[in-house]
Amino acid sequence: MDFVCSDCGHRESAATYKPKCDKCGGLWKLDYEAPKFDLAKVDKETWSIFRYREFMPIEDDSWRDISLGEGMTPIINFDKNVLFKMDYYMPTLSFKDRGAVVLISHCRSIGVKSVVQDSSGNAGDSVAAYCGRAGIKCEIFVPHNTSPKKIGMIRAHGAICDVIQGSRDDCADVCRAKVKKEGRYYANHVYNPFFYEGTKTYIYEVYEQLKKIPENIIVPLGNGTLLIGVVKALEEFLAAGIIDKMPKIIAVQSECCDPFVEAVKNKSAVPAKVQIKPTLAEGIAVGVPMRGKEILEYIYKYNIEVIAVPEEMILPTRGKLAAKGIFCEHTTVISYAAYRLYCERFGMTGKCLIPICGAGLKSEPW
C-alpha cells in the first residue's frame, strides 16, 4: 500500500515516517480502493468500527488490541425532520476516535514508538488515548484557549501536553517544526490519510442503521476531517450503486473563522485568508486548513453548500439542546445552529442528519 502526493504524484510506501511529500511538500493521499460496499460483508460480531474492516485499509490485527469499542453510536429522532448521530458516545467523548483508532493501529503495524500531534483538543484526546492503549509515547500540542478539560484528558492518558500561546494555526506551526527537527512520527488527523479511513465509517454506520442515506447532511468544517470522510464514503456508495446521487451536504463554519465561506463567495480554488476572531467553536477555528484545496475541490464537484454561523447563536442554541437532553460542547452546537439558520433562509425538505460530535463536559471550565 502506498501514499501518493496529492500535488506531484510522488509515491512512498505507507510505512514511511515522512509526514508529507519531500519532493514538493504536498500532502499524502492513500492509494487504496475499497471493495464494493455490501452490508452482507459487515462483521456483525465485532462491536466497533472494525466491523467494516472489509472496506478499510487494515494491514494486520493490531486493531484488536487497540480498539476501545468506538463507533456504533445511536441515531435519534430529535424532531420530525432532524436526525442526530450521537457521536459523543465514544471512548474519549468525540467523533475523532473513529480516525484516531485507525491511525494509531497503522502506527502499531509499522512499528512506530513515539508520535507528536497538534490539535484544538478532541483529536489530541483521541490520539493520546489510543497511544496509551497501544504503548506508544505521545506528545500533543494545543493552543492556549483549549478547554482545560481536554488538556486534562490528554495528560490523564499519559501523554505530554504542550500548551502554545497563539492560535490553532500557530500551535500547528510549532508542532510541525518539532517533527521536522526531530524526525518523529506526525500522527496528525489532517496530514495522515489513514485518519479519514476511520471517519468514513460515520456514513457506513448511518447506512447500516437506516438502510438509506438521509436527503440532507450537515457537517462542521474546520480542517475537514469529518467532511473528507463523509465524502469518501458517499463516493464509495455511488460506485457501489447504493445511492444514485449525492445528498445535499451543508458544511458549517463560524463567522469568526470562515476561510471556506469566503473562498466559495469568490469562487477561489484555495481557502481565503481571514482574520480569526475569538470563538467558542474552538474545534473548527482553523484559519489555514492544510487540505483546503482538496476540500474546495469536493465542495465545487458536489455542490456542497457552505454556511457561517454567528457567534451569538452558539450559547442560546446550546441551552435549547441541553434543555432537551443533549448536552454537547460549543463546537458541536454550531451544526444544529446552522440547520436552523439554513431553514430560516432557504427552507429544507426531507430528513437532515446532524453529527453530535463532542460531549458538553469537554468544554466546561470547571
Radius of gyration: 19 Å
Query: Could you report the average pLDDT, rounded to the nearest whole number?
Result: 96
What fraction of the residues are assigned to beta strands by DSSP?
15-25%
| Span of the ends, CA to CA | 46 Å
Q: What is the fold-level CATH name, i.e. the topology of the largest domain?
A: Rossmann fold
**Sheet with most strands: strand arrangement:** 4-5-13-10-11-12
Helix/strand class: alpha/beta
Largest sheet: 6 strands, mixed
GO molecular function, one term: L-serine ammonia-lyase activity
Protein name: L-threonine synthase
GO biological process, one term: isoleucine biosynthetic process
Cofactor: pyridoxal 5'-phosphate
Word description of this protein:
This is L-threonine synthase. Pfam families: PALP. One of its GO terms (biological process) is isoleucine biosynthetic process. Residues 66-358 form the Tryptophan synthase beta chain-like PALP domain. The protein has 366 residues and is an alpha/beta fold. It folds into three domains: 1-31, no CATH class; 75-93 and 194-363, Rossmann fold (3-Layer(aba) Sandwich), CATH 3.40.50; 96-186, Rossmann fold, CATH 3.40.50. It has helices spanning 63-66, 97-109, 122-134, 148-156, 168-182, 194-199, 201-210, 225-240, 259-265, 292-301, 314-323, 330-346, and strands at 2-5, 11-13, 28-30, 75-77, 82-85, 114-118, 137-143, 160-164, 185-186, 216-220, 248-254, 305-309, 352-355. The strands form three sheets. A six-stranded mixed sheet has the order 4-5-13-10-11-12. The radius of gyration is 19 Å and the shape is globular. The termini are far apart.
